[in-house]
Amino acid sequence: MRNAARNRALMSRHRINYGAASNDEYIRYQSYGLGDPYDRIWEPNITQPIITTTVDIRTDDFDHPPARVMQTAYQSSDSFRISFSLPSGTSYHFTLYFSEISTNVTMDGERVFGLQILNGSQIFGSMTVDLFELYNNTRNKAYIIYAVSPMYIDTAGVASFVFMKQNGSRFGPIISGIELFQFFDNDMSLGTDDNEVETLKHITTFFPSLDIWTGDPCLPYAYNWLTCTNDSRPYISTIYMNNQGLTGKIPEEFKSFKALTQLSLAETSSMDIFQTYHLFCT
């Protein structure tokens, strides 16, 4: 997936495989090579009519879509629309995946469809697609359409992809997969304050039950046992380590957090554990 906005993290909202065999057929990494090389999880969509192939699909594009996704597709005899209800007031990135896998299509012009992308009621982009022609009159090659700039969703809270069979086209539109991502609003290139991160790492070495927590403690989301400030480089503001199976003394390093206003360490065990401790900073 290409960078559509600098220093903004993306959160997956939808990743759909059209033409799945069943509602239980989630696709992710598989060692035999047809699954997702990056272990992305693809939701199944079994909407009929479906076309499939067992022919190897060239998926050497920059996103490397799974071969299993590209070997199936939803194929309409006419126009259709795919819509998603989304949180409004933020921006999104999309990637659409296609491959001409029908042996009935033997020349360009036989499957031609228009594509409109709508952010609410506004047209974000449009194009005409002839997959057979795009790859020099060949089939079984992944073709990707993606947003080159963030798509802002206003108060309507809906993104739609409209596929329109063109006049003279023998076959209707086709789609193999869709990915839809939400941009985080904050610039995340700097991350949480370095000293705060190092202090927290040192504190977690005292408590083995916390060593599963890795990555930036505040971005894109804070660990579920702390909160952070809204600074461009966040600071840790509250820590709630209740019922984490903690033992021993309270590390002095807690005093090093510049913006810490509350520290709660509550345990119910009868072992040598601190019970409840609150630190309020003024």
Give a written overview of the molecule.
With 282 residues, the chain is mainly beta. The chain folds into 2 domains: 174 residues, Jelly Rolls; 71 residues, Leucine-rich repeat, LRR (right-handed beta-alpha superhelix) (Alpha-Beta Horseshoe). It is built from 3 helices and 16 strands. The strands form 4 sheets. Strands 1, 2, 6, 9, 10 and 13 form a 6-stranded mixed beta sheet that branches. A 4-stranded antiparallel beta sheet has the order 5-11-7-8, with no helix packed on it. A 3-stranded antiparallel beta sheet has the order 3-4-12. The radius of gyration is 25 Å and the shape is elongated. The protein starts with 9 loop residues before the first strand and ends in an 18-residue tail after the last strand. The C terminus is likely disordered.
Short description:
This protein is mainly beta and 282 residues long. It has three helices and 16 strands.
| Number of discrete domains | 2
Strand content: 25-35%
Biggest β-sheet strands, sense, barrel = 6 strands, mixed
Question: Secondary-structure element sequence?
Answer: EEEHEEEEEHEEEEEHEEE
Tell me the name of the CATH class of the largest domain.
Answer: Mainly Beta
**Counting H and I runs of at least 4 residues, what is the number of helices?**
3
CATH topology of the largest domain: Jelly Rolls
Structural class: mainly beta
* CATH architecture identity of the largest domain: Sandwich
Number of strands: 16
Proportion in helices? under 10%
The gross shape turns out to be elongated
Unreliable spans are 268-282
User: Roughly what is the average pLDDT, rounded to an integer?
Assistant: 87
Report the end-to-end length measured between terminal Cα atoms. Answer: 46 Å
